[in-house]
User: Fold these one by one.
Assistant:
Number 1:
Amino acid sequence: MCNNVSSGYVCYTFLTYNMKKDKHFSFRTTEDDWNYIVQLAESDDRTPSYVLNKMIKTFRNRGCFHINQIN
């Protein structure tokens, strides 16, 4: 959804995104990888879920749409 707001001579555009997280995703990982995620989360007072979501968004925002781009 895009909302436009005018203020004098300047028009501002505010983007709002549907941030509802309604999908559950689980997977197996090594203890080392899990400890890494937990360490990242704890260093910023976040949850492991937050860190994984942030990683996914970062890959998408950087244009990684094929597994070869991650290797």
Number 2:
Amino acid sequence: MRWLILIAGILFVGTPRVLAGDMVLTLDDGREAILHEDNTWGFAQFSISDGSEEDLYITLDNGKTICLKTDYTWNYSSGRPQQKKSVKELPSVYANGSATRPTLDQAVQTAVSQAIERLTTKLLPYAKKSKLTSKYLSACIKNEIGENGAETTYKPGWTAQAKITLTNVQVKNIIDCVATQIETPAEGQEAAKK
């Protein structure tokens, strides 16, 4: 009788338990995840993490999306997040600007501003969306190209032309910069909340 109790105890402790309120989900890779009522989760079978995991998003048959977070908590989500594009998927872009002003310095500044505005328009579909996306794109482009990032040429009569060319690596840096700006709350907003 002792052996029967011992074997039953080992089986009870050694196997994952699914309680009445728990849900079991089968992931795309075939693993099963158990979602507990207290919004924690775990795998049905023991697995070793290599540390490179990201949050998992599972769309249920009823259309709802569940996010399994890497801290082993879960919640319903409004949908899958926008996937970041790799450098190879982003384009290399260029834009030109041209302006005639009373002084050469004003003409150069206006031409560069026009080129940055055109680049902002071209990169808008790739950037994370918010009310301030265009503003952040312009600032991140200026940051990426630096002080002397535009090729400028001059014509008689205070006319300047500016050309800005961005590689796909620079475009990725700009898109990441915009995402960081959107995700990081402004200092003024934090102070207002306190």
Number 3:
Amino acid sequence: MTPIVRIYACLSLALTATLTQAQTLPDPTSEKFCQVVQQVLANTERTGTNTIFSDMPEYRHSKPSTEPHQIYQVVTYDGQRPIMVSCKIKGAAHLRSAYGDDAAGEQQYCPEITRRTKAQAIAEMRAENLMGIAVAAEAFVIDENEPFMTGRDYLSDFELSYVGEDGAIHFQSPGLFHDYDSWTTWILPADFEGQSYCHLATVDYMKALAKGEIKPGTLMTTADDAPVTPH
């Protein structure tokens, strides 16, 4: 390892450690996962009561609520490996409307979680002494996906990862978002107001890609037969 590469690796390790210490993502199969996503994206201490579905149609039809604060989660598997978590949570503005101005802060969006996932995957590989693989994973690119406005778009098939024209492995974090403070709240049914949805790659998925155990280009679906239990 050259001195420059060694310095880069040390700086990278320090940055990764800082990021992961700030907020370690829970086990993706735990109900705490989407609760942490709720806290991070709405800048709130509220977690909501989370329901994890083992049936994709139930997840598709679910709608989070503020009073009571209910959120929803489903996990997609590749065999025994959880590769994606889908969360339906509440936006910051809707939480402020229900629980007061101090209940939530600035709204964040799905790619913020994927950036934390990348940092955590790198930190875990360094802890496993997989330094070369961890450095290579630094080149992963997190796409800044703009959230969709319709459920149909959010539920459409997409590639969780892909190789971009730049030759790097990219990760997508498609979501849906409605700003409760928007004028459109006046014309939307209550079930559609202030919603914040995400599809999120897992730490396990990123590590498997980095190690070459799977290839980029994983096609994700929310069809009835989506693999939402280990198999």
Number 4:
Amino acid sequence: MWSLEVVVLSFAILIVVIILLFREIQMEVVASVAVLGLATVWFMGRRRGRQLYKSFYDEEIIRLEEEQKKAEDETIEDKVRKALQDKWR
């Protein structure tokens, strides 16, 4: 999933590289700008991926804790219900 910042940065880098090529700047400079831009986009994507994974992981932990608590609550309710049924018999 691409964020708007990454897309804008990618287009900005592409535009800078094209302008540098048309201005007949040395290829080493253009290549350096392109590589630096790609590395920046890669790091931003990696950071975003880690944030998404962390939020997904946190949500799953919360969901599992709620399910476990619900299962424990149901177990207690079942025990009380069973004890009442045994008492009334």
